[in-house]
Structure formats: structure tokens, C-alpha cells
From TrEMBL:
GO biological process annotation, one example: branched-chain amino acid catabolic process
Domain Dehydrogenase E1 component: 119-390
SUPFAM superfamilies named among the record's database cross-references: Thiamin diphosphate-binding fold (THDP-binding)
Keyword Nucleus: no
Species of the source: Streptomyces albus
Gene: pdhA
Assigned keywords, A-Z: Oxidoreductase, Pyruvate, Thiamine pyrophosphate
Residue numbers spanned by region Disordered: 1-79
Cofactor(s) named in the record: thiamine diphosphate
UniProt cross-references to InterPro entries, sorted A to Z: Alpha-ketoacid_DH_E1_comp, DH_E1, PdhA/BkdA, THDP-binding
Family matches, as Pfam families: E1_dh
Superkingdom per UniProt: Bacteria
Name this protein carries in UniProt: Pyruvate dehydrogenase (Acetyl-transferring) E1 component subunit alpha
A GO term for molecular function: magnesium ion binding
Amino acid sequence: MKSPSSGSRAKSAAKGSDKAAPKSTARSTAKSAPKSTAGRSAKSRAKSTAASGAGRKAGSSRATRPARSGAASAAGGAANGVVGAEPELIQLLTPEGERVTHPEYDVELSAEELQGLYRDMVLTRRFDAEATSLQRQGELGLWASLLGQEAAQIGSGRALRPDDYVFPTYREHGVAWCRDVDPTMLLGMFRGVNNGGWDPNSNNFHLYTIVIGSQTLHAAGYAMGLAKDGADSAVIAYFGDGASSQGDVAEAFTFSAVYNAPIVFFCQNNQWAISEPTERQSRVPIYQRAQGYGFPGVRVDGNDVLACLAVTKAAVERARTGEGPMLIEAFTYRMGAHTTSDDPTRYRSDEERAEWEAKDPIKRLKAYLENEKLADADFFARIEEESEAMGRHVRDAIRTMPDPDSMAIFENVYADGHALVDEERAQFAEYQASFATESESGSAAVEGK
């Protein structure tokens, strides 16, 4: 099962700018059950103020019906010891599925393109749910779910051109889908049968990076190389709110700013770095950190696929035209566990999760499609059937994955071989052969009784 080509979809129009400095989101106390840091109700949105010049506008095929301003405010503030003005989320689609406008960013999509975004999110979620179930059944050693973050990943992923290069973490399953990576390829690493089963250069999608934040340095260096080559493509580096505390990320910001690298830093702030809430990591909203490095930052509603698409498209276009780095903070929520080894009920409340469930990215786009009569019941039924087929495909594929050759660990250690590696290979082969000998001896003993 494949996703449509990255270049054939999301012919969006977007324009953008730096946003006013917002106030951080904050929970009550370290010991109390945390509350959600969601935006105010749709009727109380305040129109955003914006500084100049981050994005551009391009044409597309369908004009959306403007409703009201799309600058949604996020709760929290100085009372909890966090400095800065009140944060505003760039939003184009409310949690209720109402289309809104924004003075600096917008996107125009056809009904077919909107349906495509819905399909992307539904199939990505089904793949993720299937992988989680397979881990519980012992088919995977571990799984990092993206549940709740589909809009951030699909919106940003569909904003890229095929020649743009992606540096993911270990959770960007939706972005991988947008880059035409076979979903079953993602499972091999978590099953322990390979180190990532796809060729990064075939899809311009790097291998998953387990070391927190290290991929941002790889991305910065690659972007600096693009600039030296005179290429007009861009780089996007994904990381989370927890990784924003890593020194690698700070170094990547510094190098990218100084060398004016064509890179977009896309931070999915899902509110929790495993069990550590965001306000214990930063006294200002994450996107404001960009100001200290000399490049713009914005905060977008990470559960709004249209806003994520518009903002990312503007940011990568800005990077391509020589205007340098930009930081996007996608304000979203990790609905599931950090990984399948985590128990989120130990550090966050059911009330918090329920509050974010009301902002579900798939439900809000479905509501918009239904309200505007951009999709009918037959369309949703077809997507559900395709989702079921996706589940069967994933289950069948993982159970037929070949086990790796145990001797392969000795390959590619040295370019021209090494005597020590040859010795270790021979010792390991002898060790493995001993199990076969013991097994044969045991079988013979049983038969002789």
C-alpha cells in the first residue's frame, strides 16, 4: 500500500510571517494532575499580530470560505512562572471543523486535495494502531506511536517537494508515508531485523534517528551543503519538545543561523518529554527561542492539518529563496504513550487527555468535509475499507519478514577487512554451531530411550 507521490498533492497557497512573542503553556504544580494547555474557545479567538516577511503566496484551485480570524490563543502564563506575551496559535481549521482565515498564512485546496489529506491521516493512524497492537502481541520489540500528531506530520510532509530532504526522529511515520516509504519498512528496525529498510536517497527521507536531537546537526550540515552547491531545495528537521533541551539542537540552530542554511526546524511540541512537561524545560514558548539565534519562529496549531501545511510550505519556500532557517513549533498532543514501554497514566490525567481528544485532527477535518459537502458517505466508506486493507497488509508483512543473517554484523566494519574481525567472525560461527550440535545430541538421546 502506497501513498500518492509527494509532488502530486498539496498544491497549496501559503504565506507567512514571524509571530508575536507568546506566553508559555503551563500546568499547575509538579505533584498535581496536569491540565491541558489548549486554546480558548473558537468564539474568543483574537486576531494575530505579525512581523514582516516570512512567507509567500502561491495559487491553487479552490477558494475556501472565510469565517473569522485564525489566531487561537493558548492558555497559561506568568502566574506559573513563565515569561513572555500570551501565545497565539496559527489556525485555519477550528476543533469544530470551521474554516477560519489568518492574516499572514492561508492555504487554498481543492476538494480532492482535502480528501487526500483526510486519507493520509486515517491510513497513517491505522498503520500506527496496527503497529502498537503487533508490539503488544510480541511481533515488535518496541513502538513509538504518533497518535494525535497526524495533522502535524501530514500537513508538514505534504508541504515538501520531492527534492527536499527530511531528517526524522523515530516517530515520523506520517512524514514517511508522505515520502512514499512503504509503511512496513518502518517496522523492521523495531522488530530488530534491519537498521531501517529503506534507501534514504530514494525518497530523500533519512533513516530514523534514535539519539535524541542528533538528527538536527545532520540536517544543518546537509542544508549548509545545499547552500554551497547552489541548490534550490530545502531541508526539514523534525524533533520534539524534549529534544529542544539537547545541546545538539542548540548547536544546529547556531550553525544554521550563522551560515544562513536553507532549513526548517519542525518541533512537534506534544506537551510531554516522556514524563517531563514542557514548562519544566523552558521559561518561554519553544518557538521564541529562534529569536535568540537570529531567525524567525512561529507557533502553529499542530492538530490543524491545513495550518501545518500552510506554515511549512511558507517556511520551506523562504529557505529555498535564501532567507535562511525558520523554527515551527507545532502545538499538539501525544495521545498515546511515549513508547510502548511507557505508562502515561502515571504522570498525566484522564481529564487532560479528554480535553485534547476534543481537538482530534482527523475528526475536525472530517467535520469540515461534511459541513462543506466536500465529501460524501461513499468517500468515507471507501477510506474505511482502505484502512482495513492497510491493517491486513501490515499484519501479513511483518510475519513474513525474514530474520537477519546473524553473521551480517561482521560486514562493513572496515572497508578492507581486518584480522581481528575475521577472528571474531570465526569464534561467533563456532559458538552458533555449538547450539546445533547440542540440539542434535539431545534429539538422539530422546530417540534412544
